[in-house]
Design goal:
CATH class of the domain at 117-257 and 318-461: Alpha Beta
CATH superfamily of the domain at 117-257 and 318-461: Zn peptidases
Number of helices: 13
Number of strands: 23
Structural class: alpha+beta
Distance between the termini: 31 Å
Shape: globular
Length: about 600
C-alpha cells in the first residue's frame, strides 16, 4: 500500500509526561516522571498495519483515531505507546511526530457569572471560541434576533452538577420564525425539528466552529438568503454548540498556558473513576460521552479502563451530560420506533439529528455497534447519507464498521434506537494534508464550512419527511451553462465562461461537464475545463482522429475546488484545414 503521512495541525499540543503513580499510570509514565531528562513531550501518531483485521478489543487501552486507510488503523499516543502496541501483539510504525503548540496567555476557566460582548470575542489556538465565547454568542444572537432565537438551559455539566468549581450550564439555542408555541420543550411541535449537536468530544475543535457558523448563517441570513429564510419559516432548528463544556474548558486551558496534555482531552471531567490517569495524547480522566449511551452500551469500540479515551463509564447513561442530552432529545422528538434492532421507525416520522465529530470526511449512520446488522430504515438512512456525502464533495458514507470500525453507545445510535429519528455523525476534516487532525489551523474552517453547510441545509430540509423524501439533486445554484456559439478556427483557442453562484460548497468527486462541439476532425482539438482558481482539467486531448463532433458528458473529480466562481470551457484547435463551432456546454457540480 502506498505510504501516506497523516499530516496533523501544524501547531498541536504536547503530551503530558509527568504523572502521579496510581490507577492509570503506566510504568513508562512513572519512569519519565522520575527522570525528566529522558522525557519526550511530543505526541505520536502510530500506523497499526493490518489493524482492521484484528479484534477491536486489542485497541481498548489505546486512543484509536477515527480514521482508516485500507486495513491500517491509527493510534494517538506518546513515545512509549509504540512498545505498548507491540506488547499487545500489534504491528505499529510511527506515522507522525507532532510539534508542540505555541504558548498563549491563559483564558478564563469556568462559566462566567455574566456573559458579555467582550467574552464573545474570547478565542484560543488561533481563533477557536472558548466555552464562554460560545455562550456569550448565544445570548447575543437572542438579543439581536429576538423574533428568531431562544436560548434554553437544559442541564448542568458534571462539574456544576456535583458542586465543583469551573462547571457550566448545558445550553442550546432554538432558531425559528417565532409564532405561538415556538421553541417549547414538548415533542408535539407544529414545525419539523432538526437538532445539531457539536463538541461532545472536547478536542475536536472544528465541530464547535461549524455550529457557531450554522447559527450565524441562519439568523444573519434571514430575510436576505432565500434558503435561510425558508428554513426558519418552516422548521425549528435546535443547536447544542458544545455538548461537553467541562471537557472543552480543559482543552482550551491546555492550549492557553494550563496543564500540558489537556489539549488532547476527549472525555468529560468526571475524575471519580481513574483519578490518576495521565492527561496526554493517549490517556485522560473522564468518561467518553459518545460511548456512555445505553444503546448497546459496552459493546465494540468501548473500554472498561478508566484511562482509555473510549472509557464507557461505570454504567450506561451514568453521566450528567448524557442524562441531560437524553432529556432534551425526548422533549424535541416523539418516539416513532418500536423495539428490535431491525424494527423500522414509522414512515411518517418527522425530525432529523446530526452530531458533529472529527475527522476523516465521513457521513456515518446507525447501526454503529455492529455493521453486520442493518437498521430497519437502512435504505433511507443510506440514501440520505449518500446525498449528504455528495453534497460535501465526495465524502465516504456508511455504517461505521463498513468504512471505519464499530462503535457502541453512541449518540446517533441512541437517538435512532430510542426515538426513530434519522441520526447521523459527520466526521469533519481530512485525515491527511495541512487541515488534517483534531487541531487544524483555524484557517481551515472556511474550507470545512463550504462542505458542511450544504449537508446541514439538506438535514433541515429533510426533517419534514425523512423516510419518504426524495433526492434534491445537486441543489440550486450548483450548475451553470453557456449556450453561445463560438467559432473554432485553425490554430486558435476559444474560452466559454459560465458562472456558478449560491452553491456554497466545494464541487463533488462526480461533477459533470456536458460538451457540444461541431467539428469535422476532433483529433485536432484539446478541450479543458478551467476552474475559477486557474486549475485546468483536460476532458479531450486530440483523440478521435477524423471523427466528427463532440457530444459527450465527462465526469470529473473537482472536489478540491470551490464550486462558486467563473468556470471556463477552453477549446484549442492545434491543426490546419478543419474548423468548427462550440455550440454550448453545461457544468453540474
Amino acid at each position: 500500500m502506498h505510504h501516506r503521512r497523516i499530516l496533523w495541525a501544524a501547531a498541536v499540543a504536547a503530551a503530558l509526561t509527568a504523572v502521579t503513580a496510581g490507577s492509570g499510570a503506566s510504568a513508562s509514565d512513572t519512569a519519565r516522571a522520575a527522570d525528566p531528562a529522558n522525557s519526550d513531550d511530543h505526541a505520536y501518531v502510530y500506523r497499526v498495519h493490518g489493524g482492521a483485521d484484528v479484534a477491536l478489543s486489542k485497541f481498548s487501552s489505546f486512543d484509536l483515531l477515527e480514521t482508516r486507510e485500507g486495513d491500517d488503523l491509527f493510534v494517538l499516543g506518546d513515545a512509549d505507546t509504540g512498545q505498548e502496541l507491540k506488547a499487545a501483539g500489534l504491528r505499529p510504525t510511527v506515522e507522525e511526530k507532532l510539534t508542540p503548540a505555541p504558548w498563549e496567555p491563559p483564558k478564563r476557566s469556568g462559566q462566567a457569572p455574566r456573559m458579555t460582548d467582550a467574552l464573545a470575542e474570547e478565542t484560543y489556538y488561533g481563533g477557536y471560541r472558548t466555552v464562554n465565547a460560545q455562550y456569550a454568542h448565544l445570548d447575543q444572537v437572542a438579543r439581536d434576533h429576538a423574533g428568531l432565537a431562544t436560548v434554553v438551559d437544559f442541564g448542568d455539566s458534571w462539574r456544576k452538577s456535583t458542586g465543583r468549581a469551573g462547571g457550566y450550564d448545558l445550553k442550546a439555542i432554538c432558531l425559528t420564525k417565532k409564532t405561538s408555541g415556538s421553541c417549547q420543550l414538548t415533542p408535539n411541535s407544529s414545525k419539523p425539528r432538526f437538532l445539531l449537536q457539536a463538541q461532545v468530544h472536547a478536542r475536536e475543535l472544528s465541530t464547535g466552529e461549524m455550529a457557531y457558523r450554522w447559527i450565524d448563517y441562519l439568523t444573519d441570513g434571514y430575510g436576505s438568503d432565500t434558503k435561510a429564510t425558508e428554513l426558519l419559516d418552516t422548521r425549528e432548528i435546535w443547536v447544542v454548540p458544545i455538548g461537553n463544556p467541562d471537557g472543552v474548558d480543559m482543552v482550551q486551558q491546555g492550549f492557553s498556558g494550563g496543564p500540558s496534555g489537556q489539549q488532547w482531552h476527549r472525555k468529560n471531567a468526571n475524575h471519580t473513576h481513574g483519578s490518576n490517569c495521565s492527561e496526554n495524547s493517549g490517556s485522560g480522566i473522564g468518561i467518553d460521552l459518545n460511548r456512555n449511551n445505553s444503546s448497546h452500551w459496552g459493546g465494540a469500540g468501548t473500554s472498561s479502563n478508566p484511562c482509555s479515551q473510549v472509557y464507557k463509564g461505570p454504567a450506561a447513561d451514568s453521566e450528567h451530560e448524557t442524562k441531560a442530552l437524553h432529556s432534551l432529545y425526548r422533549k424535541l422528538f416523539p418516539d416513532t420506533r418500536g423495539t428490535g434492532d431491525r424494527t423500522p421507525a414509522d414512515p411518517d416520522t418527522q425530525g432529523f439529528f446530526v452530531t458533529l465529530h472529527s475527522y476523516s470526511n465521513m457521513v456515518l449512520f446507525p447501526w454503529g455497534w455492529n455493521s453486520g446488522v442493518e437498521a430497519g430504515n437502512d435504505a433511507d438512512l443510506r440514501r440520505m447519507g449518500k446525498d449528504m456525502a455528495e453534497l460535501a464533495g465526495g465524502w465516504q458514507y456508511g455504517q461505521p464498521g463498513e468504512i471505519l470500525y464499530n462503535a457502541s453507545g453512541t449518540h446517533d445510535d441512541w437517538v435512532y434506537d430510542d426515538l426513530g429519528v434519522p441520526s447521523y455523525t459527520f466526521e469533519i476534516g481530512p485525515n491527511s494534508g495541512s487541515c488534517g487532525g483534531f487541531h487544524p489551523s483555524y484557517s481551515c474552517q472556511n474550507r470545512f464550512w463550504n462542505q458542511v453547510k450544504p449537508m446541514l441545509v439538506y438535514s433541515a430540509e429533510n426533517a419534514k419527511d425523512p423516510y419518504g423524501g426524495t433526492d434534491p439533486g445537486p441543489g440550486p445554484g450548483c450548475s451553470a451553462s453557456n449556450g453561445t456559439d463560438l467559432a473554432i478556427r485553425d490554430h486558435a483557442t476559444v474560452n466559454s465562461p459560465a458562472t456558478v453562484s449560491g452553491c456554497g460548497r466545494e464541487a463533488s468527486t462526480t461533477s459533470t461537464v456536458k460538451v457540444q462541439i461541431q467539428h469535422t476532425y476532433i483529433g485536432d482539438l484539446t478541450v479543458q475545463l478551467i476552474a475559477p482558481d486557474g486549475s485546468a482539467y483536460t476532458l479531450h486531448n486530440r483523440s478521435g482522429g477524423s471523427t466528427d463532433n463532440i457530444n459527450q458528458t465527462y465526469t470529473v473529480n473537482l472536489s478540491s475546488e470551490a464550486a462558486d466562481g467563473t468556470w471556463n470551457l477552453r477549446v484549442t484547435d492545434s491543426a490546419t484545414w478543419d474548423t468548427g463551432t462550440l455550440t454550448g456546454w453545461e457544468l453540474t457540480l
